[in-house]
Structures are given as C-alpha cells and as structure tokens.
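If you are new to this repository, start here. Below is one unmodified record pulled from the training split, so you can see the exact layout before writing a loader.
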Amino acid sequence: MNKYGNRVRELREKHNDTLNDLAQKLNMTFSSLGKYERGERKITPDFLEQVAKVYDVPFSYFFGVESEPPKELKEIGADWVAFAKDMKEKEITPDEIKAILNIMKKI
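And here is the target side for that same chain:
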C-alpha cells in the first residue's frame, strides 16, 4: 500500500499539475517524483512538507485530514477564533461586545 504517494498524486492531480510540473516546483526530476508516488522510493517527512508548501495544505493532509478551515476563518486568524470561542463559552454575545465597545469609545 502506498498511502502517502497516493495522497501526493491526488493533490497534484487536483491542482491539474503533471509529474513534470510538480517535479520542477520541488526541484527534482519527474522520474524521482514518480517513484515517490508509486511507492518505489521511501517518502520522508521533509518531502511531504515540501509538497504541502507547494500546494498550501497542512501537513496533516497526507494523513487523511482534509478538512481545512474556510478561507474566511484562516484570514481572521487563530487569535480571533480563540477570542470568539472564549466569548461564547462565557455566554457573551456579539451584540454585548459591540455595546461594551460603544461605551468604551464614549469614555
């Protein structure tokens, strides 16, 4: 079974790249890349990391974790998401936060 090579191939094909396209982006020969995809060459974490960077996916993609946060959530950033979660846990609504901010602006 060639789980990681298959994931690399799926990702490459999803982006409509040929073996040669991705090989150039990774600065390797297309035959070397083909060997990785077919399981003829041992895949290293460094190789997967390079592929992840090329296609802007998390490293966990290669382990079957495909769900990426929506683009809007990524743009907001982890700090804001953590803040929103904290406010929800404290049962503070967005309207209450807006009211507090309006009061603070008047001070």
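Two things worth knowing about this chain: The chain has a mean pLDDT of 89. The chain is about 65% helix and 0% strand.
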